[in-house]
Amino acid sequence: MAPILSVTSDQLNLWLVTFLWPFVRMLALIGSAPIFSEAAVPRRVKVGLAVLLALVVTPTLEAQPAIPLMSAAGLWVLLQQVLIGAAMGFTMRMVFAMVQAAGEYVGLQMGLSFASFFDPTSGGSTMVLARLLNVLALLIFLATDGHLLLIRTLAESFHNLPITDAPLARGGWLQLVLAGGQIIGDGLMLALPLIASLLSLNLAMGILNRVSPQFSIFSVGFPITLLAGLAMLQLLLQYLAPFLEPRFGASFELIPQFLQGLRR
């Protein structure tokens, strides 16, 4: 007679937490990282991708801590994985926030502040130019295999910061805050050539209006500003990829530093 397979509650809990905790970290990253968190990606695809990655990565991990899932320590570990995964996704999302901020600055200077629509990604009204630059940044991210590097970084994160019930250090969060402070500065650097050109054009039209008051600058000012902005934008777009690639690389370097900061 064949032996009956018996599974104890401790074994079942161990199998469950061995898969669940990596899955939660991966799902949190997929729900916050660029490309994967887009509203156009169905939720089933996001969950399915997290399950697939968990099935592949879990056998390569170290032994998980023997903590019951339905306990205070188990819930704390679960919350930690959500925070870690979301923070890793937010680290990459900051680059796209910088691009969107640059689009907002340029759109205001070009007089396109009225050209906005509802963006399902941000959940609010977004300028058309900001959305255009964000889409171009997504295409550059895909062209440089950023999505594959992000998955590899996610798999390596379990070795940089193993799953444990130890409290997270504040050094990693401080690094994330300091990196987030560069969003406005980098966005201004990206938009600076176009903003400086449009500002010079506005100053020239102001001087022209003072020299020749009978010249109606208000009737031709907006078309000239818009056409000049589009011409400068065409010149700016060819430098968008060389500008973003080092920023993507810096974000990928920031993630291991952030994880190491959480261990101290």
Summarize the structure.
The protein has 264 residues and is mainly alpha-helical. Helix content is 73%, strand content 3%.
Quick tags:
mainly alpha, 73% helix, 264 residues, 9 helices, two-stranded antiparallel sheet, single chain, elongated
DSSP summary: helix tally:
9
The shape, in one word, is elongated
Radius of gyration, Cα only, in angstroms? 24 Å
How are the strands of the largest sheet arranged?
Answer: 1-2
Alpha-beta content class: mainly alpha
SSE topology string: HHHEEHHHHHH
Helix percentage = over 70%
Q: Using DSSP, what is the number of strands?
A: 2
Largest sheet: 2 strands, antiparallel
Can you tell me about this structure?
The protein is mainly alpha-helical and 264 residues long. The protein has one domain. Helix 1 packs across helix 2 and helix 5 runs parallel beside helix 9. The chain is elongated.
